[in-house]
Amino acid sequence: MAKKKRLRLIAEMARKIRAYREMKSQPRESQKYDLDYETMRRPLTGKMLPVMAWQDVRKESRLFSLLAGMRLFGVGRLFTRKSWLQDHTEPSYWQITKVKVDYTAENMDHGKAWGILTYKGKKETEVKEMDKVMYHDWRLVPKHLEQQMKDFEPLPEPPVRYVPYPPLLRAMILAQRSKAGACVREEPTLPLTRNVLFNKDYFRQQDLERQRQEGTAV
Residues 103-110: contacts with CB within 8 Å, 24+ apart? Predict the structure, then answer.
């Protein structure tokens, strides 16, 4: 008969207390991402922001800086980023579904948000936590442009024309290249389509071969 495991209530309670104290000792969002706009350093870590980000920090806003002044903290509205508008022609945005504000922040401009991501016109189905909410390049999508962005239909993806070689064949090809002394850094790929150019001699040879097999008509 197996020995019954003894419950250690005091040790278990002490473990929960240590875990709770460790959780409470962690810095809040407002403390972790606080920023001194004169020195461009974070007081908690002392790290300085990259110089290329200083312009956006002075002109753009964080996500919760926009949400703090909106009704229901912007739930249901669309938000995009400056980098997405510059890098992609297809619409990329978040539709916010849930917001958890850090009320200990001075202006309630920190917290966590969840939503549905649409990236390059492709909408995801699952709700997930929004990342990079502390970045200073968030923008609110005007209401008169929301439907236009939602109605966008992305172009179909081009068909796959090349696939990677199996691991053994790939290793053999790379070994053959290195043995021949060829300095080719391209990954070897296997084409799925075979492009063959046929000329007149090819079709003439095919006709002669077919006549030879079928015989001459009498």
Answer: 104/28, 104/30, 105/28, 105/29, 105/30, 106/30, 107/65, 107/68, 108/64, 108/68, 109/30, 109/62, 109/64, 109/65, 109/68, 110/28, 110/29, 110/30, 110/33, 110/64, 110/134
User: Cβ contacts of residue 35 below 8 Å, gap of 6+?
Assistant: 41, 42, 49, 57
Strands 93-101 and 78-81, sheet pairing: antiparallel
Is residue 12 in some structural domain? Answer: no
Element (H, E) at 150: helix 143-150
Report CA-CA distances (Å) from 176 to 163, 165, 167, 179, 184. Answer: 20, 14, 14, 5, 11
Q: Output the six-digit token pair for 201.
A: 């001699």
Backbone angles phi, psi at 166, to 5 degrees: -60, 155
Residues 37 and 127 in one domain: yes
pLDDT in tens, 40-93: 888 888 888 888 888 888 888 889 889 988 888 899 999 999 989 888 888 999
Q: Are residues 105 and 166 in the same domain?
A: no
- pLDDT under 70 in the chain at which residues? 1-7, 183-184, 194-198, 215-218
62 & 107 share domain: yes
Q: Does 44 fall in a domain?
A: yes
Domain count, the chain: 2
Q: Indicate the residue among 114, 142, 157 that finishes a domain.
A: 157
How many Cβ atoms are within 10 Å of 165's Cβ, its own excluded?
A: 15
